Amino acid sequence: MSGEGLATRKITIDEADLQRLLADVWSNEFAPVKLEMDGKTMDAKLRIRGGHTRTYPKKSYEIHFGDNGILHWNAEFDDPSMIRNALSFRFFNMMGVPAPRTKHMWLEWNGYPHGVYLEIESVDTAFFRRRSIGSKALIYAVNDKANFSLIDPDTEARKESLMEGYRVMKGNVNTEKRLVRFVSSINRLPRRTLRTYMAKRLDVSVYLKWLAGAVLTGNYDGFDQNYALYEHTTTGKYRIIPWDYEGTWGRNCYGRLCGSDLVDVRGYNALTRKVLSYKSCRQAYRKILAKLLDGKFTIGTIEPVIQSMYEEITPAIRDDFTRKWPFRSFEEEPELFRSYIEERRAIVEEELEVWKD
Known about the structure:
alpha+beta; seven-stranded mixed β-barrel; four-stranded antiparallel β-sheet; 21% strand; virion; Spore_coat_CotH_CotH2/3/7; capsid protein; Spore coat protein CotH
């Protein structure tokens, strides 16, 4: 197997450290490694990452190197196309919602090929610095308890803590207090007071764009988790960033085919319901959807991006025998993308016709 023109990353790891990683795939413990990347060899540390994918024969990894450099290497094991995350993040960036940059790469491990991976930019301090965005706090939504609700989705009882589902990546105890106050307020404030509060604490325009992106790409798993919140330095408002969009464009997060109508056009979670309870927000959201249907969410715009990604990775995918899916499935995926876009457009257009309030 060879990378066939893709960027190559090489890892050297001691056998004892490798066995320690594999002994407990649910651990977030790092192991020391040597990383060869872009013609340089350096010390680094690596861990297994992901949710249900940790038990797969082809793991995904997070690697730390140099001066606070962090990258995510996703095996995309459940995605026969290998591009759903990459295409989704490209779409969000086209929309004007900052999303991680991606690059397909070839991974070698102690001299042995590990196949094609998707390298994903980390959402961290450097992410905001590269885009000249001021961020005074960053919070990850790490599981489905990050639903902006007072209620635990598993027990249907009140949450013991409103920080359940969230992990502060940048900030302090006041960051947690502000987030708890935000979640509590959007669920408890009376309607007129809530409108004023949300205008001060939430960048509604960014939120509605993010909502449209999640709805159009069909990420059922992206409303109660798989996002990041940050507090914008200048305005003090929360803004939202997408994360983990492998289960999109007609397949779920396990790679199973799903209907183009899986995701409600109005989206999900407690905050979305509160935002869309106001007529002006509904009108703004419908305008965003209509504009995307007129331009960016079209076969004419998205198909060339798919073709470009496929041209880049097809030779390497053909030679990659670490994947779950046969090469024939990979070849058939562009038609599934096309069908999904056409069907999703029709569903959203129909909803916009009847959704007049």
